[in-house]
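notes to self, project folder thing:

trying the whole complex as one job this time. last attempt i did each chain seperately and stitching them together was a nightmare. two parts in total, labels are on each line so i dont mix them up again. if this works i'll redo the older ones the same way
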Amino acid sequence: MAMDILKLNISKAVKSEGPWKRVWNRLIHKKLAMISLVLIIVVYMAGIFAPWIAPSNYSDQNLLEAKQGPSLEHLAGTDRLGRDMLSRVLYGIQTTVIITITSMLTGGLLIGLSLGLISGYFGGKVDSIIMRLGEVFAAFPGILLMILLAATVKPRVLSFARSVEDLTGIDWIIKTGIVDYIVVFGALAAFSWVGMARLVRGQVLSLKTMQFIDAARAAGASTPRILFFHLLPNAISPVVVSITMGMGSIVGAEIVLSWLGIGIQPPRPSLGNMIFENGSLGVLRSDPHLLLVPIAIAWLLIFTWNLLGDGLNDVLNPRTR
Amino acid sequence: MGIYIVRRLLWVPVLLMIVTLVTFGLGLYGPGDPVEVMLGQNYNPEVAERIRHQRGLDRPFYQQYLSYVWGLLQGDFGESFKFQGQSVGKLIGNKIWISSQLGLAAMILTVGLGVPLGILAALQQGTRRDSLIVSSTLFFLALPVFITIPVMLLVLVLNLHWLPSSGWGGLFSLHTIIPLLAMGIPGVAVITRLMRASTLDVLGQDFITTARSKGLTEFVVQYRHVLRNALIPIITILGFSVADLVGGAFIVETMYGIPGIGRLAVDSIFARDYPVIMALTVIIATAFVIGHLIADILYVVLDPRIRYE
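result (full assembly):
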């Protein structure tokens, strides 16, 4: 009899939902957050599959059809060189997808998360070195240094890529615009790690005094095991929220960099250089769609990321409500 | 606390040294020869060599850096490469005044809207109006300057003809409205949410119950007890919001044709006018560091429960 109850309990325990499943179940009832999630997935998919779904190439010119408004043939109209705006916007989204994901993975997650964990767990000298370093980065006027980095470091990366091309005989490295991507996401990553590191450090500081960490140590768990299997999962919920909220601001930062002419270079489209190219009063007067389409997409992305982050915050950190 | 403030103050010059060193290094080893840009069409190797010698550009790095810092300490920012014969200090002075007027006005707008909205939402927590305020702030948060400016230009300038399309005519002119709204709006969201959260936090504390139970009027409770304590996080975040304002100023000033430091910075970077870039970096970084410092110190002064070791 007792054995039966035990068995029952065990089978129940096995069937019980994981924490992420529970989060998902609660999130699914948040209408705004779910709509945002669906929209984000649609926009990101559109960006990823741009080469297959775009009606034409982003650089195909047709001067006879320049500056047309939206029509059946060109759903979002054409620009001053007769390029199909819908295709350009789709490729622009692709740029945004690449930049947001790479800078978040490198700056926010890889650098920020591990430095925060190390800083909080080990404390002492390591902690003060990392935090002081963060202070230095935070003291720089971010946008000014980003511009400076892009203006001074980029030509060096470019000439390095050129010499690689010369040595290996490959001629597509620069053409793909990969150098622009590296510089832009490098500049963004350099500044996005500080906030994440501080957040994780704060979490770890309060978690590491708890008994389950002592228990893990007493059981002989190695330091990396404690860091990544015991501390990280418990510190993860504010991290998830901060990443989601941060994606919106990276979308904005890429636009600012490209808009200032130091991000992704034409003819490769990005939302930023489309806003920049068509940012004059003259264009607004005659062909507002050229500016309004990329602006609407940018707004949609920033807004939906924020809404999703807000919903996740409700679900993951219910106490802050 | 005295020790904490002294330590923070000692850290300020160190931070600024690092900031100037990095900027100076990037500028010096960056591509593009400023002398070449300066001479433009009339480039002549001999003249270029002479100018380089005159300006000390042929000296080793550390000498150039040290003499630059020495100049800085005496308030001398050097001479612009692009606008010859003009000292950087003179070039920047007036523009800083314009930019800081605009930035300060934007900050006042942000706080003036955000604080009442946040309190309103908190006092009516859980009602329809609360959720309306909270979700509409997210909408405003998603309106960076590069979105609001073109839309406002389209609606307010091209369609309604209410406002001028660009330029600067002093703080109290129609020219100010578009840039002010563009810079002020995104921050409203941040202030509103923070104010709501901190008001809720204070409302739940025991001393509010005490204040009510000893018979203070609701007015006194809300203004003297709730508001004063709930404002603490707002004051500290203002120190950090300097960064966002500067970032916004770069785009707003360039897009709307305002002769401030944001626009100057963008122009200088493309002209490789390093003395100007350096000066702006040092000035803005100083503003950042002091903003953070004041925020941290105010935090301790306003809330005696917080102790820094």
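what i see at first glance: Chain B has two domains: 2-86, 89-302.
need to look closer tmrw
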